[in-house]
Amino acid sequence: MSDKMKKMPIFKTMFSSLIHYPWYNLHLEERNPVPPFIDQRWRGRAQQRLEVLQQLSRSQPSLQIPQIVYEDPEISGRNRYKYFERPFIPFHKPFPLNVAYAVAKTEPYVYPSITSDRSRSPTSRTLGTQTDYRDGEAQTDPYSPEFVVPLGSIPELLTLATLTWGRGLPAGQAEVEMIERAREKRAWEATLPPLSDLSQTEKRRKMMDDMERKEWAFREQEIEKLQDVRLEVLKNLLRRREEDQNEVDVNRLDTHWFNRQQDKEERVRKIKHEHIKAMRKLIAKGKNVEGKLERRDVISDYTDYASQPYGPLSRIGYFPDNHSERYVVKNHFLNTYEGLLELEASLPHSVTQPQTKAPKPKTTTTKEGFIKRTSRLDMELVQVHQALLEKKNKVKEPKKPLRFLQKITKPVPRPLTPTLLRPSTREEELELAVIFLQKLIRGRAIQNMMFEGKEKRLELIRELRTTHALQEDGKLLKKAEKQVTLALQRQRDLHEHKLSLVENHLAWIEGRALVNMFDFLSKELVRLQEERRIHAFAMLAERQRRIREAEESGRRQVEERRRREEDEIFKQVAKVHQSTVDSYLEDVILNSMESTAEEQAREEIQKVAVEINDIAYEMESRRTCLQSEEIVAELVYGFLIPELQKISVKEKVRQSQRKHISAAHQIIHRSTDIAVTQNSSVVGQQSLGDGESVTKILGSPPPVAACSPLSETAAEQSAAEVIESPYAVLASQALYDALPDETQQGGLVVSHSATSDRQSQADIAPAKREDESGGE
């Protein structure tokens, strides 16, 4: 049962928006979404009983579980139409049903002329609306149908029973990985050597150790991921706390600054007030410099409308606008909705529906269609006057600057990106040769300059040579040092050249590696972006597919429910016809079976009686007196005496229960006692007749062989003779079955017991023969 609140509008205040006059009331609406033909009773008792039996069968293999038999659906037979029929719902709507129709844009309305005929508006319009409640508000967990697992099978789907909607379903990447790990583990468990094989115990232990190591490594990775997630969450919480604390600090500072500003404004206001008061006092003193006392001139005050009597100052304490609320108009017709309606109804129709008439234009033309001279002169005068006014009031407007003109500064062009190309060996050799030639030319130029300078300063050189002739040894030392320095410089230049070559080569290698890496990263970025875009498209397509599947499942459920109703009606009708036919056929078959069985039983009894009679005659002819005595003794001690004891015990129990049974019989079967006695007498007569017929069939018994007198009484001999004779056994059995209980308890006890014992022995013998034949 789903109880919901329903809005019931109030007719009087349907269009009211006031709180104290609501336009609707809330009423509880009770609706039962389950159809009446569906049984709402709980049907989980049978399922629980089956589960308990399955659990007990694991510990008790001898326990038998009732086999669940499913009806053959006959998909390709008579039920084919149930599986291949298409729904009758049209699919002409390309969008879902919960989308509201957009209101079409209307063109501006043009009022028709009075003479044109008004087109009639359509009598009905079709508009799309959207309900207040959606199907998602009543969405529950997906329905899981009942299932039965065959014995000895473990479906993979049952291993995912812990996953529920919202907790693992629909399955994501983590759930898919978990399922794949479970499959791998089951496959690994299938490859494990059995425990019964002791030769592979070490291999099994090694495989289990490896698997345990892998599981621990995976668990450590999961723990690290969880720790990273927790660390990220902790960072977010700390950052959020810091932001909240900063926000609190900023709010506190703003509050403090606002309070300080208010204090400042209050102090400034007081200072201004004191300043104004002091200025008024100074102005008043300046008006009366001499200090003379003057009385108030009442006449001049009242003749001046700007004086204090007419406009007193508020700082004196008098407010001329006091008690202004007494002049407020309070009217019932203007303050309430009902008053407005009443006022509108009382006004004449001309007030609420004004009728405006266009003024008649002045006629400036004659009947013949010519313009009058006066009208033409008036128009010319108006044009001349307008031209004079424009010329008089025309002022040269200064040039205004362009409003939207802005200077666009061109950005400074960026320098070209230098590119470093690896020079070839030939170009490098040429460059070195050119550099060497430059050095030679530069050295030759310097040599020429030095030569020219030497020629110019030759006299000074000679003078210096005369003064420094004694410093030859020092010059030699300096020359040697110079040569060493030059050699070191050449070595350094060669070393720097080699280093530059190595650095250039390394830079070329690094540049190539970086170019390849950046190219790969850019391509990967583009690929990831495309993959995400494709994934987003796939998600959108999956979402649309799910929506369509949900709609299709809803339509399918409606069709299936209708089909189930029709099937149930057909089943009930067919069941009535089938039960009628079955009852008729059952009556016919039972009658035929009873008649046939009765005839076959009579024939079989006659055949068995003849065979038993022959066997009895043959045994009677071969038996001696001693064997007869032994048989009588065995019958008396093995059958007669125990049977008498059983009968006595049964009689005692029957006597103890007779009073209760008789009372119950008197209450229940009071009216049927006479019929029972009559039926018993008739049955006794029929049984006696059957006994006589049996004796006739069997014939007279053969004469018994004479025997020597023994220590037994005549009664025992007669009893033995009666018991031993086969025709007497059959007759006594028939009489015992036909006579009532009192007669059976009387004198025919011995014959009945003997007959029953012999019959039991006769029944046991074929069973033994069948067992022996089955064993062979």
Automatic annotation (TrEMBL):
Residues 113-141, 746-776 are annotated as: Disordered. Residues 113-126 have a biased composition (Low complexity). The keyword Cytoplasm applies. It is found in: Cytoplasm, Cytoskeleton, Cilium axoneme. This is Cilia- and flagella-associated protein 91. Residues 129-281 form the CFAP91 domain. PANTHER family: CILIA- AND FLAGELLA-ASSOCIATED PROTEIN 91 (PTHR22455:SF10). Residues 766-776 have a biased composition (Basic and acidic residues). Belongs to the CFAP91 family. GO terms for cellular component: axoneme. Keywords: Cell projection, Cytoplasm, Cytoskeleton. The lineage of its organism: Eukaryota, Metazoa, Chordata, Craniata, Vertebrata.
